Structure formats: C-alpha cells, structure tokens
Amino acid sequence: MIQQSMHDRDDAHPCRVWDLVSAHGPSLTALCRSGVVLMPGIHGIGLSAPPFPGRPDTTTPQVRFSSDQASARIESAQDVLHDGPCHDAAATRQPVHAPDLTDSSWSERWPRFTPAALNAGVRAVFALPLHAGAVRHAGAVDLYRRTPGALHDTDRNAATAFTAAAAELLTLERLGLDWTSAFTHASLDQTILALAGGTLVTTGRGLTGDPGAALPLARWFDHDSLPMLRRQVHAVSAAHGLSGDDANRFVLAVHEAMINAIEHGGGLGQLLLWYRDDRLWCEIGDHGPGIGTTLRSACDPATRPRVGTQKRRPSGMKLIQQACTTMEITTDSTGTRLQLSFQLTHSAPG
Question: Which residues, including other chains, have CB under 8 Å from residue 253's CB and lie 6 or more apart?
C-alpha cells in the first residue's frame, strides 16, 4: 500500500523501515542478505538474536546470520568469548561505534574480541541494539569493515532502518505464526493497487478477491490507504466470526488506532491481524516519538504518565478500550505498539 520506492526516501524516515519489512519479510535471513547492498560502505553483517522459530519462550541470543567468512568468525568469537561490541550494545541498549580497532582503547575494552577481529581482517565495527517500535530483543546487529573510519551518514541512516526492520521481523517471529502467505498476499495487493492507480475497491475476500483475506494478515498503511484497509479489516473480521455491531466496534477501534499511528507516529504504520484462542487479535505499530519516553503498558494505571509529562495523548483511546476485550499499549522513544483483541462467541472457521 505504500507505493513510493524506498530508494526515493530518506533512509532515516519510518517509511524506510516498513519498506524493508514488507519487501523482505517475514524472512529475517532475506532482510540480512540485503544489508550489504543497502549499506555499500559496510563489508560484512552479523546478527545475534533469540531463536524464536519454534522456541518463542527463548530470550538468549545466538548467531542468526553472518554475511561472509570474516563476519562468521567475529560473531562466533563474540559468542564464545562473551566479549565485544555486540555484547555491549545488547547490555547498554546503546549503539557502539569502534571506527579503528587498532586504537589501544578498544583492546583495553575488549581484550579477547579485539585481537580476534584484527586477525580476521576487521578494522572497524559498529553494533546496534535490536530496539525499535517500542520492542526490545536481546542481541544486536554488527556491521564490519576492513578499513578504518566512522560511518558516513548514508550508511548510518540505512543501518538504523535496517536494525529497526530486523527488530520488527523478530517481533513477528515471537508471535509464533506463519506469516509467509500474509506477506505474499500483501505484496500482490500492493502491486495490483499500484497498477490500478490506487482506486481499487475491496471485495468480500480482500483487495483482489483472492484468498489473501485468510489470517494472519499483514499490511502497511498511510493516510491514503486507510479507507481501503478499513474495509478489508471489516471483511476479514466478518469472515472469521465477527458480525453486526461487534464487527463495527472492532473495526472502528482498529481504525482509530491506525489514525493515531498516522497522526502521531510518522505518518505510516503496520497492521497485523490474526486469530488465536477464540479471539481476533490486532496489532498496530509505528516508529514515531512514542508517548513519553519510558517503555510501559497503558493497561497498568501505575505506569501511566502523569498529566503534562507525555509528548502526546492518542485520541480515541477510551473508545478503543471500550470496543475491545483487551487493549495493551507499549511505548517508548522508538515508537508505539497497540495490541487489541476481541473475544469471539464461537470458533472461527478453520
């Protein structure tokens, strides 16, 4: 639904994150393989993160990707030695930039990692924590270079967007669902919408009349695509057990959440819709400035910001809470994520 090419956009803008997620997801490996192309000043990429597929309760990071032999050696060294920029970035939740590993300060900081990195031909390393859209994952993205020097702005912005996209795909993994068909149908819908000039009308089966309306559903939205996506959410919800006033209330709540993401979260957002435990679940995420600066759940009154301390208060939050069975919001300076559920009176179709 976001039709402009990501190459025509500011790498640091939230839309770049959603472009990367929609283009390469749900495969984290596919995203990582694109990293060297996205950051031409980088020679190697490594990623350590929890092994969520099949083990959603596991939080201990392990090496999930390395782009070349040098990256593999360095990622393995950090994993074995428990020393290095990845560990520091994960522990502090702050980026770590080491533009020249021959500087003695780095060997003092990482007495085991630094010699191993230099022996592998690495001269500069940059680690970014997996923290974006109000979600934090153990581990980090590591960027390696065979020559010394700081990251240029273009590579820095691309690395920030790349890491945020990786965090989003890890969040999808943690839900324990197969998103392959959801991404396939989302890509098809975007292609057909672009060919139709943005005027395509939804059918009862989705944008194209295709079984893409089957859950789970993944879509990326902006202001122009909002009316179409609202109709699609209504059609999909009705097909999976909601009807009448229940469907209208749920869709209105989802619509209100998307408006908040557009108005306060950078103009774009991600919508996920799935079925589990006799409930329809919906998650709307953005990469805006967040509500306040502390990660919290809005369902906990003790953690809600006091009047005057928050950057923004999303409109319609009370309406959303009243319309749904559950509502949970997590937010920090990297974005906001709103998760809703609606209890079905009978099981959804298989």
Answer: 319, 320, 323, 324, 340
Half-sphere exposure at residue 216, Cβ-oriented, CA atoms within 13 angstroms: 20
Measured between alpha carbons, how far is 284 from 266 in angstroms, rounded to an integer?
13
Read off the pLDDT of residues 47-89 as tens digits, 9 standing for 90 and up. 999 987 666 566 788 999 999 999 999 999 898 888 999 999 9
Segments of the chain assigned E as strands: 44-49, 62-66, 96-98, 124-132, 135-145, 217-221, 269-276, 279-286, 326-332, 335-343
- Joined together, the tokens standing for residue 312 give 């923004």
For residues 340 and 230, give the distance between their C-alpha atoms in angstroms, rounded to a whole number. Answer: 15
CB 334 within 8 A of CB 134: yes
Separation of alpha carbons 336 and 49, rounded Å: 22
For 157-199, the pLDDT digits (tens) are 999 999 999 999 999 999 999 999 999 989 887 666 556 555 4
Cα torsion 167, 250, 214, 192 to 10°: value is: -80
Structure tokens at 63: 């090496």
* Helix %, strand %, coil % of the chain (to 5): 40, 20, 40
Predicted confidence band at 286 (pLDDT cuts at 50, 70, 90)? very high
DSSP-based three-state secondary structure for 164: helix
DSSP for 3-21, written as a single string: -S-GGGS-TTSHHHHHHHH
Q: Which residues contact 308 (CB under 8 A, 6 or more apart)?
A: none
Secondary structure (DSSP) of 40-101? TT-SEEEEEE---TT-TT----EEEEESSHHHHHHHHHHHHHT-SHHHHHHHHTS-EEES-T
163: helix, strand or coil: helix
Give the separation between CA 202 and CA 204, rounded to whole angstroms.
Answer: 7
- The dihedrals phi and psi of 320, each to the nearest 5 degrees, come to -60, -45
d(CA 112, CA 79): 12
CA 251 to each of CA 71, 209, 336, 341: distance values in angstroms, whole numbers, following the listed order: 46, 20, 19, 11
Over residues 76-126, the pLDDT tens digits come to 989 888 899 999 999 999 999 999 999 999 999 999 999 999 999 999 999
